[in-house]
């Protein structure tokens, strides 16, 4: 529910009806039951210790590109009005099916990524967010 509540204000109200129109009701109930079982397993198996940091070789093409992106992005990010309501408004010319297709594509692409590099990227983002000037 926390995920739903976090995105409900920026999600087109037609998304639930659209999603329901694509599936069989019995299948939805079965999937929901499976989701609740999964939730229980996750809840009972919480991570109690921090894992080792990801390892990424330095000086490789990805590292060099990441550094260049970081150096170019930081000045831009400092100019962004993070309190603006523009982030809550629907994207122009976007429909629920288009958004769902894009989300599906991101999930598929993410599942094919190198887990170690994905973890390193998440750690880098976390570090960067934590080091932004206090006024931002």
From TrEMBL:
> Mind listing the UniProt keywords for this protein, alphabetically?
Chlorophyll, Chloroplast, Chromophore, Light-harvesting polypeptide, Plastid
Q: InterPro entries given for it?
A: Peridinin-chlorophyll-bd_prot (IPR003376), Peridinin-chlorophyll-bd_sf (IPR036550)
UniProt subcellular location: Plastid, Chloroplast
Can you tell which superkingdom this protein's organism belongs to?
Answer: Eukaryota
The record's annotation in Gene3D superfamilies points to: Peridinin-chlorophyll A binding (1.40.10.10)
Role played? Water-soluble antenna for capture of solar energy in the blue-green range. Peridinin is an asymmetric carotenoid.
What is the recorded name of this protein?
Peridinin chlorophyll-a binding protein apoprotein
| Lineage summary | Eukaryota, Sar, Alveolata, Dinophyceae, Suessiales
């Amino acid at each position: 529910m926390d995920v739903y509540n976090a995105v409900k204000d920026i999600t087109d109200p037609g998304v639930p009806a659209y999603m329901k129109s694509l599936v069989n009701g019995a299948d939805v109930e079965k999937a929901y039951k499976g989701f609740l079982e999964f939730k229980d397993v996750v809840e009972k198996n919480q991570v109690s210790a921090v894992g080792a940091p990801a390892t990424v070789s330095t000086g490789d093409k990805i590292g060099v590109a990441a550094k260049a992106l970081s150096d170019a992005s930081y000045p831009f990010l400092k100019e962004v009005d993070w309190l603006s309501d523009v982030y809550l408004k629907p994207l122009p010319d976007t429909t629920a099916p288009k958004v769902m297709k894009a989300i599906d594509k991101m999930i598929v692409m993410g599942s094919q990524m190198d887990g170690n590099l994905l973890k390193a990227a998440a750690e880098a983002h976390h570090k960067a967010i934590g080091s932004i000037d206090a006024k931002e």
